[in-house]
Structures are given as structure tokens and as C-alpha cells.
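User: Some background: our group keeps a shared notebook of sequences we're curious about, and every so often someone picks one and asks for a predicted structure to add to the entry. Today it's my turn. The entry only has the sequence so far, pasted here. Could you supply the structure so I can complete it?
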Amino acid sequence: MMKQFLSASFTGLMLLFGTPLMAQDGPLRIEITEGVIEPLPFAAPTFVAETAGADQLARELVEVITADLQGSGLFRGISPDAFISQVTSFDGAVQYADWKAINAQALITGAVSTTGDGQIIVKFRLYDVFAENQLGSGLQFVGSQDGWRRMAHKVADAVYSRITGEGAYFDSRVVYVSETGPKNLRKKRLAVMDYDGANQQFLTDDSSIVLAPRFSPNGDRVLYTSYETGFPKIYVLDIASVQRRGLEEQPGTMSFAPRFAPNGQDVVFSLTQGSNTDIYKLNLGSGTRTQLTNSPFIETAPSYSPDGSKIVFESDRSGTQQLYVMDANGGEPTRISFGQGRYGTPVWSPRGDLVAFTKQNRGRFHIGVMRLDGSEERLLTASFLDEGPTWAPNGRVIMFTRESSGASGSSTLYSVDISGRNLKAVQTGGSDPSWSPLLK
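Assistant: Of course. Here's the predicted structure to add to the notebook entry:
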């Protein structure tokens, strides 16, 4: 059975399938296999309100922190009804025996205060209950009161990273296509939201079909395809100002499936001229266009490797839709998919070790991952229609579109861990998600 190891950078409690062991020298390790993992029990008492009027904010912060951690599938929050101790002072002594009694293996304590100019200050500490020590130093975040959810995500990210050794991903956003109306008259517009579906903001109206939004490497811009002229055309939109501009086009062609290069200045996309579809690169500054493939087949859905040296894409040059990798400047591609069925929409992992894809086989659609040489193919989902994977910033979670069958079928965003566990709906109707990098 394949195993994946997560390691953290601090000394403390060693957890194996959620069972506490004595503190040891060396890094904490959590072993995750394909089997069922017992989530780590943690306690998160309501944060201490250190200024008048901060009580509700203190409760809401903990609710979001708990939802983030539990939503990862690796943690289980203990109900406050079971708490023996109550935390009334951020600097008070921790009653470890009381938290051990309810089997809390980790304890999160915190405090929140507000300032006269609309700012909030959130601070927290993380404790290893069975080793009876604090894990790392406490952290403090300062921001606007309107951005309190981001503060909660930042706390959850810090806890998640310290205990798993994985990169953070809660303080991030997702751009997607919001869909409303019946299936035969579906209206679509671009929207952006927090990774958990909160704070939705529309970026375009529903006057024309929009497809395949893709975040820039620093999350400030979005590429997408619009049919407002009757033909697909690529636009780049600034998130802050919601201003956009169309990319240079050639008469008689159609451009679509854009994606940023890691440098944020180059865009790779597909261009159809006549009956031929090839992959091109465009520099946004100079406007220089470079053709990367040149074949009589359909080459589309390009995605860069994290270092910008390679591109993975889909092509039917072998007779069926398969995945290929080529140098970022073009050249002869190498086929990497060899299983039964058709493969498409490949996306390189932020870690650089895997490619996520959509697979169609025997009337079912799957989201899967494989190594860069095509080995260790692993299907994570199966349904009537699953498609369009996008990676969380830490390369651990994948979000995708699931569409239900029938004339009244609708599209919903789902997420799944790369182990195939923790499949869940994001509770947002829409399609074509693209996960941002961590927010700054």
C-alpha cells in the first residue's frame, strides 16, 4: 500500500493514526495511508475578549478556525460541552490534566481585541497536551475588523502547518464560474470567494458566457475566456479594480484555455485557426507571440510546471485524448498517460511532483493524479461528470466541478484530498474553479 508521509519542523508529540505517544527528539511525523485515518482531537475554547464588545468576534473566530481544521479531514474538534477547564485569561496557566481527561491532544487558546480605528488584534498559542508544552511561539495578527475571517484562516493555517508539516491553504481564494438558471438557459459570470465559499464577489455580469478563469501566480489578476463577441476570446482582469483588457487576437482565429506562466508575464493558451488547434505563448508586456506546437491535431489545456521549465497539455495526436509533456519553449512532446479511457484538463501540482487530470472511462468521469512519468495513476473520484481540477496552494487538496445528471442537473464545486479521502461539497453552485496562491 502506498504511503505518504507528512513531517513537521518542531519537536513534540508523535501521532500515529491519532494515537498520542511520548514526546521524542526529532520532528513530529504523521503517517497517512490509504486506509481510514482517525482525525486528531483538538480543543479550541472561545478566545478571550480583551476589549469590550469583542465577545461575538471571539466566538466567530473559533467557529471558523474549527471549521477549517475539521474540514481538512485530519482534525476533530471536541465539543465545548465536554470542556472541564475554561480559558478566561490568555496568559493563564494551562490545566493540562483537564484537557487530557477529555482526550484533547492539541489545545488552541487565543485572545482578540479591537482598536478605535476599526482594527482587530488576534493572538493565539498552540499546546501539545500530552507532552505538556507549547508548540512553537505564539503568533499575533493585526488587520481590519471586516477581515476577521482572514484572521481565523491564518490561525488555522498556522495550527495545520505546525501539526502536519504541510503548507497552509485556508487563507486563499477561488475564482470560478457562477451558474444560475435552468440547464438549457444557464447564465454564467465570474465570481471569486474565500476557499470555503464565504465572501463571494462577482467580477463580470451574466450577459455572455465565460469559461475557465485562472489566477495569476500572485493572485492579483485572472485570465478567462469570454464569448461576448460570439467567438471565444481571452481577457485578463485585475481583481482589485475589476478592470480588464482583451489579449491581442488574429482575425479568423479563436483563442481559449489560457493559463499564466510562473513568471506572471507569459500566458500559454490554445489558438484555433481553420480546423487546427495549437498551443501558443504570449508575453503580456511585449505582445510577442510564440507557437509551441505545430501539428494537425487538437492541442489544448496547457499548464506550466512550478519552475516554468515544462508544460503539460492534452492532445489527440495518438488517436485518443491523452496527456503530454514538452519543454516550455516547445519541442517534441512526451506522452505520459497510458491507461484505459480519455485524459484531459491536466494541471501541474504546486509541489511539482504530480499532475491532476480529468479521466473519462466506461461512461464515468474521474478526477485523478499521476506522477510526471505517468506512473502511480490514482483515481480520486467517480461520478456522472467530474472535471476541471485545481490545486490548493499546498498541493494537498484538489477542487473540481461535479455536475449532476438529468435535465435539471446542476454544477457544484467539490474538494478531495490527494489520498482520495475527505470528498466534500463546497456548497457553491458553479464550475471551472481556480485556486489562488496563499494571500499576502
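Suggested note for the entry: The helical segments are 55-71, 96-101, 148-164. The two ends are 38 Å apart (CA to CA).
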